[in-house]
Protein 1
Amino acid sequence: MEKHRVMILGTGPAGLTAAIYAARANFEPLVVEGNEPGGQLTLTTEIENFPGFEDGIMGPTLMDQMRRQAERFGAKFYTGYVTAVDISKRPFKVTVNGEEQFEAEALIISTGASAKLLGIKGESEMIGHGVSTCATCDGFFFRGKRIIVVGGGDSAMEEATFLTKFASEVTIVHRRDTLRASKVMQDRARENPKIKWELNAAPIAVVADGKKVTGLEVKDSKTGEVRVIETEGIFVAIGHSPNTGFLNGQIEADEVGYIQTVGVSTATNVPGVFACGDVADPHYRQAITAAGSGCKAAMDVEKFLEGSNVQDWITVAQS
Ligand code: NAP
């Protein structure tokens, strides 16, 4: 069985930043890439809000450069899907693709979260070409255009309100006539004159002209009538799922499944297991915040492997 001091699970900005730091600390980390190497940023086009890139940078390019940077300092990459971990005792055991086994003295979990998609016709083909799951990332590209936001929760209200900064008009499309969103978020959206509402409208297909999105086909949940709402952009805001299935409940998480970390650290309730990026962050979910937490995770691992008592440095970090 291959043995490593540090294994990093996931290669979004959190995992790759952790890899850069852990590699520079001479741990030669093994980074498991997963099914979506580079993470959610590889689903976007241009990223304009990652500091240091005055003219923006394409998501896949940024992730590729982070990966090369980690490799330059000695990080090793393994392509495969982590199917299980045994963290009941150290060294931890990591199973990849259901069979390959690895051992690690410390683990950094940075498996991210996946935006939920509607699963309707035309949706996956148009991601990055008019369909988006991230208003902060892509809203800017829809200046002066009509946009649809799908969903009835706080995320949909927040994204719709944010998108009114760019769009000429934002229509919230929700499959029921009552919203799941908190009253304060609903009120904010209702008070916004640029926001229109299409309730009882269940999305059934993304309509495109081959190159760009032109509409969203919806079915009236009460009458069954099918029609197309014209739009240039569709933001799907129906929630995220943290990618934690492989943990099988071995780490403390909130009710949705986001890993809980201790205080300002990236330590989990299992000594030697650290979590960073979106898998432990239901709130900020930005590339730069994920990268920052990846840096913290590698520094926490270094302290842990040096033999510091986990509680000591968390207490210091919090004070
Ligand atoms: P959510 O509360 O689970 O809402 C998801 C929405 O998407 C629901 O309205 C749901 O419809 C709809 N939906 C789900 N699957 C769908 C499908 N296949 N087709 C059409 N519609 C679908 O998720 P969220 O809005 O991301 O919020 C998650 C958590 O984060 C919540 O606790 C929320 O309060 C919190 N949050 C807070 C803030 C804030 O306070 N600033 C911002 C964002 C999120 P139904 O209602 O019909 O099920």
Protein 2
Amino acid sequence: MKLPIFAANWKMHHGPSDARAFMKSFLAHYRRQQDRKVLFFPNALSVTTVSELLRDRPDMETGIQNIHWEDKGAFTGENSAPMARDSGATHVLVGHSERRHVFHETDVESNLKVKAAFRAGLTPVLCVGELLAERDAGDTERVVLRQLLAGISEVEEGQVASMMFAYEPVWAIGTGRTATPQDASTVHSAIAAALKTAIGERAAGIPILYGGSVNRGNATTLLAAPDVDGVLVGGASLDADGWNAIVCA
Ligand code: PGA
């Protein structure tokens, strides 16, 4: 059985002091629950703070929002997968829409990052999603599956089976416009089917998260949709009380 996953993507918010204050408040209210998993993706500077505060909480883990694909070298401003691991991260977001569309990252780079994550022992969470124009042109599945298959290209089947995926339609991120549970389900089912074709029955255990304007009002309905195994939440994860309400959905 897949445990529902609640992942918070803080983006460029909550430096170490704010992250500590958030965690103090959140941990005071959120009791350990065995039937769900909570992941935090703080900015790189706050990873150590968050992972240390979660040390005694096996129900929660910390990830990093981005890595470079090289393990070390002359890449001013970048963070590598081994460094993220050393800071206490267990997961990494790869190919988030802001990385793809603001920083122009390519499918090939996402694939290199997935492989770098595995070399360092991090679990990659590969994010995929179409632009509004692509949806309007009827291209959603083609775009999403292209991103997906490129991202896992030449990755061992056993490793793919240990990954997570997030479907985040670009037009729904930070816009207040959410995909309907039906829209989400349709794409999630296509992702699940593509993963099954790629690696067989083991694909059944792979969590597929939905992201894009998830909030305390819509999280429960989205999570009830077929093939939606969790949520990846940006704006609505920034406030400890609001995040507590979503995680208790
Ligand atoms: P949002 O962001 O919840 O603010 O739409 C989601 C994401 O980018 O992961």
